[in-house]
Design a protein that fits this description.
By secondary structure, the chain is of the alpha+beta class. The chain contains 9 helices and 10 strands. It has 3 domains: 5-9 and 135-208, Alpha-Beta Plaits (2-Layer Sandwich); 25-74, Integrase, N-terminal zinc-binding domain (Arc Repressor Mutant, subunit A); 86-129 and 211-253, Alpha-Beta Plaits (2-Layer Sandwich), CATH 3.30.70. The chain has a 4-stranded antiparallel beta sheet with strand order 3-1-2-9. β5 and β6 form a beta hairpin. The chain is globular.
Length: 255
């Protein structure tokens, strides 16, 4: 059952990058609007909406803003011309690193132009649909934080229909991630919570099947600037890549 160890380095890099640029209120509110529009406007009955609301609360968005976003998605609040759609963009960063971008936009032309500019200014190229997505598989991921008893996790993972799990090897930040098929995410999340595991997040994530080692400092700096520029765009919800990079080089690149 234990697995995904070869993605440990990529996961650590992603966490460090995510910490560098937090999601804005605008990005998180859009996720709530779309989730409420696609399902019931009740977080208890809509897993996607509940996950979006949890992220918004963790980011400090006031409850009244969250309620307003849900109302907009449900059509019970005057949202004006807001009509967001989910769009996926693909491209290559410096060194041939694959970049997958998930966006929520009300203007595809504007979003594509902004993404193209970010790529071109940072040594990358925005590509055609399908140019890199074949290198990724979407999975459901439940994140646990805190001390984990592996025997109990194995039992609960099997009961919840998980594909695999990965324990953190960081003594200062213990925890685990449990992977499953997209359609089984909510069920797995419920089983782990019922088993009293410290669940902090349940999300859909693109997992790369191949990785690119980045070892050149200038190339690394350009790549990280590209990711930072992409994540700074309000239309962008998630940026996923397939690079691996030594921690010391990653730290140097942010300097």
């Amino acid at each position: 059952m234990a697995g995904h160890s070869k993605w440990a380095n990529i996961k650590r890099q992603k966490e460090r990058v995510d910490a560098k640029k937090g999601k804005t209120f605008t990005q998180l509110s859009r996720a709530i609007i779309v989730a409420a529009r696609q399902g019931l406007p009740d977080p208890d009955a809509n897993f996607q909406l509940r996950a979006a609301v949890d992220k918004a609360k963790a980011a400090g968005i006031p409850n009244e803003n969250i309620d307003r976003a849900i109302a907009k998605g449900a059509g019970t609040f005057d949202a004006g011309s807001e009509n967001y759609e989910e769009v996926r963009y693909e491209g290559y960063g410096p060194g041939g690193v694959a970049v997958l971008i998930e966006a929520l936009t009300d203007n595809r032309n504007r979003t594509a132009a902004d993404l193209r500019a970010a790529f071109s200014k940072n040594g990358g190229n925005l590509g055609e649909t399908g140019c890199v997505s074949w290198m990724f598989a979407q999975k459901g991921v439940v994140r646990l934080e805190g001390a984990i008893a592996e025997d109990a996790l194995l039992e609960a993972s099997l009961e919840g229909g998980a594909d695999s799990y990965e324990l953190s090897n960081d003594a200062e930040s213990p925890g685990a991630e449990v992977f499953t098929e997209v359609t089984n995410l909510e069920s797995l999340n419920q089983v782990l919570q019922a088993s009293q595991f410290p669940v902090t997040e349940a999300e859909l994530r693109w997992i790369p099947s191949t990785s690119v080692e980045v070892s050149d400092a200038e190339q690394a700096r350009s790549l990280l600037k590209l990711i930072d520029a992409l994540e700074a765009l309000d239309d962008v919800q998630n940026v996923t890549t397939n690079f691996e990079m030594a921690d010391d080089l990653l730290a140097l690149s942010w300097a």
